[in-house]
Design a protein that fits this description.
Layout lengths: L51 E3 L34 E11 L4 E6 L12 E4 L6 E9 L2 E6 L5 H5 L5 E5 L10 E3 L7 E4 L4 E10 L4 E7 L6 E4 L5 E5 L4 E4 L17
């Protein structure tokens, strides 16, 4: 990815995540506490607002429902974090095949706000440069059933199987404060509170509870994982292309600190 940037669940990292979460096993990291370990107590300072990530993926090489072997977002194609929203196309789902014989399509969703799609009039399909009319959309058992312009039978519908469906960033729901899209977070620099560079955000994992930032150290060492929670993500500023992190500390049942993995 250009300049190695770093991201729904929605964003975004903080991109809000409509948790149609893809299940990926946690990668070993010194930032992930062992099961049952009590978290450090708060020092009493005011906590920053929790950043929320909207998926809005624009990458073309990772499927909506990715496998554990999928490439990190930082290694796939996508816009720069500072790209204006109006210049990007945000993924809302991928076509799973035909539904019936009249050209209706099944679409697996990758959006945090499916109901907003009822307002969308045109979409991009696959690598097509021209939009198609979104004639209708309805929801059934966790997927969307859509009718697109130019698709009138099951044979034409099957030809679109596997293609990603995107909308213009201009048609996206306006983000609230502390909300970002994945593309705005992938590739930015992560630092600690002293200003020391930790690495670059290279991926975002959806765990179901919260998003997790994958940080690739500048020296190429082992990836580090940081949960997207206020106690850890002290500040997130995609415009400045920086993120400030506070690594978590944990203690065992006897009150002794748990040492990070070597």
């Amino acid at each position: 990815m250009r300049g190695l940037k770093l991201t729904d669940k929605s964003a975004p990292a903080p991109v809000t995540s409509a948790k149609t979460a893809r299940k990926r096993p946690a990668r070993p990291s010194q930032q992930v506490p062992p099961a049952g370990a009590p978290a450090a107590e708060s020092a009493g300072e005011a906590k920053p607002a929790e950043p929320r990530l909207h998926k809005g993926r624009t990458w073309t090489e990772r499927p909506v429902h990715a496998s554990p072997q999928s490439r990190p977002l930082g290694e796939t194609e996508g816009p720069e974090p500072d790209a204006p929203l109006g210049d990007v196309r945000l993924a809302i789902g991928s076509i799973g095949g035909a539904h019936g014989v009249d050209g209706e399509l099944r679409m697996r969703l990758s959006t945090d706000d499916p109901n907003h799609l009822r307002r969308i009039k045109h979409v991009y399909v696959g690598d097509e440069t021209a939009t198609r009319q979104l004639i209708s959309i309805r929801f059934h058992q966790g997927i969307a059933l859509i009718q697109l312009g130019g698709v009138k039978n099951s044979e034409q519908a099957r030809e679109l199987t596997g293609m990603t469906v995107r909308i213009s960033g201009r048609d996206a729901r306006p983000l609230a404060k502390n909300e970002y899209y994945y593309y705005q977070v992938i590739g930015i620099i992560a630092k600690d509170e002293a200003g020391e560079v930790i690495g670059t955000v290279s991926d975002i994992l959806e765990t179901g509870a919260n998003d997790v930032f994958v940080i690739t150290p500048a020296d190429g060492g082992k990836e580090l994982l940081f949960p997207s929670i206020p106690d850890v993500v002290v500040d997130l500023d995609p415009a400045a292309r920086t993120m400030t992190l506070r690594p978590q500390r944990f203690w065992d049942a006897e009150g002794d600190p748990i040492k990070p993995e070597e």
